[in-house]
Design goal:
Layout: H1 2-14, E1 23-25, E2 31-35, E3 41-44, E4 50-62, E5 68-77, E6 84-89, E7 92-94, E8 101-106, E9 114-116, E10 123-126
Parallel strand pairs: 1-3, 2-4, 3-4, 4-5, 5-6, 5-7, 6-8, 7-9, 8-10
Amino acid sequence: MKTLVLAVLVTALASSDALADPRVLGGNHKKFTNDCSKHKEVAVVGHHVSVTLKGTCTSLTVSGNHATVKGSATVVSVPGNHCEVDLNETDEISVPGNKNKVTWKKSSVKGGPSISNSGNKNTVTKI
């Protein structure tokens, strides 16, 4: 009986969002749509990947090169290069990569999102 209870508990914990890894969207010359209500954390990898986010994700990491992402994410990191990220809404933007273009429209944070732009030749702009 104790084994059955432990197995049920482990299964429930493993399926919870708290332990979930980000959904990885990658490859070369691929297009994806992500439903943020199902996959809240997204990692974009590969080259020339195009992603549309539906809803608002909790986190987005764009580590590929020449990636294009459109949608909303609370926390965004762009360590990739030559990427374009068009955000409807975000609260935090970090761009350690190079030659990236990040635009944002709105934020729940008064004064706009927190922005860290430590890479080279990046632009982060409110539109």
